Amino acid sequence: MDVLTALLLLVHLIPVSTAKNGASSKSRKRIMPDPVTEPPVTDPVYEALLYCNIPSVAERSMEGHAPHHFKLVSVHVFIRHGDRYPLYVIPKTKRPEIDCTLVANRKPYHPKLEAFVSHMSKGSGASFESPLNSLPLYPNHPLCEMGELTQTGVVQHLQNGQLLRDIYLKKHKLLPNDWSADQLYLETTGKSRTLQSGLALLYGFLPDFDWKKIYFRHQPSALFCSGSCYCPVRNQYLEKEQRRQYLLRLKNSQLEKTYGEMAKIVDVPTKQLRAANPIDSMLCHLCHNVSFPCTRNGCVDMEHFKVIKTHQIEDERERREKKLYLGYSLLGAHPILNQTIGRMQRATEGRKEELFALYSAHDVTLSPVLSALGLSEARFPRFAARLIFELWQDREKPNEHSVRILYNGVDVTFHTSFCQDHHKRSPKPMCPLENLVRFVKRDMFVALGGSSTNYYDACHREGF
User: Fold this and answer.
1) Which residues, 6+ apart, have CB-to-CB distance to 391 below 8 Å?
2) Could you tell me if residue 333 is left (phi over 0), alpha (psi between -120 and 50 degrees) or otherwise beta?
3) 388: Cα separation from own chain's centroid
4) Catalytic-labelled residue, pool 363, 394, 422, 423
5) Which end of the chain is less congested by CB atoms within 10 angstroms, N or C?
């Protein structure tokens, strides 16, 4: 058995991975730890395997948990696309051979996979907002193209959809049996992997997948900022954050040495190898149990991988401490959070449109939202990560509405900056909707410092 096989088997020895199970609702100290399975120190390979999110055992989740007198009003789902082929190639090496056609009896398996392929192949009449209508509806290349969704990625989101269907439709009856197109709000970036991930989730979620009722809107920005994307101060935060990343890398002599060794193996300048972002390709090798590449000068190996992955983890830790990324995130996430509370407020008025919203997105979408919400301990978005906002009505006090926020099935409501102390004052297992509204309308700007009280002023303030 090779090292990669042994490491991948490790995932299947963990009954429910920490990223999926995490803390109980009573344990509020940390979001993700599990004393049984979590290593005592940060292990780069363990973290990478959680990131792969290899479909295995069915996961337990906290979605839909509420006292019986609460009624589910609307659900807002943000996903990262599923497992994909790398976006970068390690120079002068053979690309990992991964088949991106969907084969029902090949692992990873899902009972709906065959029907999904059949349904997607008949979807030529699907009408989406341009340019989405020119994208393929499912992956279908014998050798994956760069960035293409894999069978693993499809299965991850079929699983997500099935899980949400069991909770939100079967248990809570969020949508009526005769649901209509205007009760869904669907939006995706213009990448095939995000459209296909969204379709896979919907296929697992909806009781009858009717092309006439499925309409995806196109979002040109990975921040989902719609008409509010111009924000000079946000870009300044990002430039300072990128400078911080660069300086941290310069300080890491072991990282430089590792890049140098790898560059010699593939016979390119170190600068060229680093620019090729080798970790992206190496993660694909790890997630798919494909050996790292070799040349006549030697092999890229697990030790190289560990050094680069460890640096990534250290970078995330410093990013949280330095707060530059938080400034970027507060401005980057504001438009989509503002849209979400707008939808929630309309639902509280009894409107029946857009009860289920799905944003099919990227790590660079979810990461700023997690940061802006104050979820500093949340792991970097894995493949097929899901962040969910639930809106609930108290049947005993119909004018009272509350929210729950869940990340990969873990209830993180009381880890958010706008609700972290609420459970100390209230026995309710949720957060008042007005806390979230106040956070988006006012407190996000207060957290930035300065005197701005709205998004436009915060984006254009002088002297930053």
Assistant:
1) 72, 73, 74, 75, 76, 344, 347, 348, 401, 402, 403, 433
2) alpha
3) 10
4) 363
5) N
Residues 6+ apart with CB under 8 A from 251: none
| Owner of token pair 């310069």 | 250
Q: Which domain holds residue 79?
A: 44-232+324-460
Residue 426 within a domain: yes
8 A C-beta contact, residue 321 and residue 371? no
CB 308 within 8 A of CB 282: yes
Grade residue 428 by pLDDT with cuts at 50, 70 and 90.
confident
- Asked about 421 being catalytic, the answer comes back as no
Structural domain includes residue 297: no
Asked if 83 is an active-site residue, the reply is no
Give the domain CATH number at 87. Answer: 3.40.50.1240
In a domain, 8, yes or no: no
Percent of the chain whose predicted confidence (pLDDT) is above 70: 90
Give the CA distances from residue 209 to residues 166, 214, 339, 360, 450, in Å, rounded to whole numbers and listed in that order.
15, 8, 26, 17, 49
Mean pLDDT of 45-60: 88
Looking at 76, 81, 172, 288, which residue is catalytic? Answer: 81
CA proximity to 283, closest of 261, 312, 259: 312
What is the distance of C-alpha 171 from the center of its chain?
Answer: 25
Mean of the pLDDT values across residues 268-291?
95
Residue 333 has pLDDT above 70, yes or no: yes
Task: Confirm whether 437 is domain-assigned.
Answer: yes
State mean pLDDT over 287-296.
Answer: 95
- What are the E-state strand segments in 130-268? 184-188, 216-218
Domain count, the chain: 1
